[in-house]
């Protein structure tokens, strides 16, 4: 059985309290509400990025479609202008003039139809560009919100880290001079049991697992020498015997 001075065993509870505080601070650092906010905003940004890609692609396609429609209208307009100039020059015969007039009428109808297509594409492009502008604005606002949330995370993390440094310094002082074998055993148990390696035995109850000890185990503990390091039969933690639970002199 491991042995350690009684006072060292009692001081182990102070070490445990500091380790528990450090564990709480680390947990708090990893579960900051602002971190959840950042994660939520990242989801929003992912959705906005997808929408932006789709909207930019649609707008780009419509710009190409509009350029083609404008080119088609310009081509018809150019041909109509050339025909009109030939007709106005008087240098064509009656038969050719009649053909030019007929073609001008056809070109006029064609131009009107193409201009309707051009207008329809322009309207669709305008709607997409309006949507794109709104998406860009929403993306910027969301990005700004993420930056603010990250700044909050940084500030809160810095504050917690400062507190953690104090606790760790206090822990180093608290463990200084303690029986080395006792500390080694405590650290091993603490690692195995998720952070708590020692607990007080008070009123026949282990304050680690919160279970009342049976009389046989309790009698054995009370019969042990004060320097004996005893452990809870239920949870395995080091039991630090408080006054009422120390062996009777």
From TrEMBL:
| Pfam families, A to Z | CT398_CC (PF24481), Zn_ribbon_9 (PF02591)
CT398-like coiled coil hairpin domain: from which residue to which, for each copy? 15-194
Coiled-coil stretches noted in the UniProt entry, renumbered to this chain: 59-145
Q: Specify the C4-type zinc ribbon domain's residue ranges.
A: 205-239
Keywords (alphabetical) are: Coiled coil
Q: Which InterPro entries match?
A: CT398_CC_hairpin, Oxidative_Scav/Glycosyltrans, Zf-RING_7
State what protein this is by name: C4-type zinc ribbon domain-containing protein
What lineage does the source organism belong to? Bacteria, Bacillati, Actinomycetota, Actinomycetes, Micrococcales
């Amino acid at each position: 059985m491991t042995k350690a001075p009684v006072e060292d065993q009692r001081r182990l509870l102070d070490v445990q309290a500091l380790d528990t505080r450090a564990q709480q601070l680390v947990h708090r650092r990893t579960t900051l509400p602002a971190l959840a906010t950042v994660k939520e905003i990242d989801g929003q940004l992912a959705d906005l990025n997808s929408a932006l890609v789709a909207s930019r692609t649609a707008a780009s396609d419509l710009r190409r479609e509009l350029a083609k429609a404008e080119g088609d209208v310009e081509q018809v307009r150019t041909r109509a202008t050339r025909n009109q100039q030939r007709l106005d020059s008087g240098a064509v015969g009656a038969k050719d003039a009649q053909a030019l007039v007929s073609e001008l009428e056809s070109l006029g109808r064609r131009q009107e139809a193409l201009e309707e297509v051009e207008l329809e594409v322009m309207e669709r492009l305008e709607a997409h560009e309006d949507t794109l502008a709104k998406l860009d604005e929403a993306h910027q606002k969301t990005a700004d919100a993420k930056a603010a949330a990250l700044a909050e995370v940084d500030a809160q993390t810095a504050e917690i880290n400062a507190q953690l440094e104090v606790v760790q310094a206090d822990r180093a002082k608290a463990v200084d001079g303690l029986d080395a074998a006792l500390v080694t055993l405590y650290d091993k148990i603490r690692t195995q049991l998720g952070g708590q390696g020692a607990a007080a035995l008070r009123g026949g109850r282990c304050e680690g697992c919160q279970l009342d000890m049976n009389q046989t185990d309790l009698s054995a503990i009370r019969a042990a020498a004060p320097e004996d390091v005893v452990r809870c039969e239920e949870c395995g933690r080091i039991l630090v015997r408080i006054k009422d639970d120390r062996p009777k002199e």
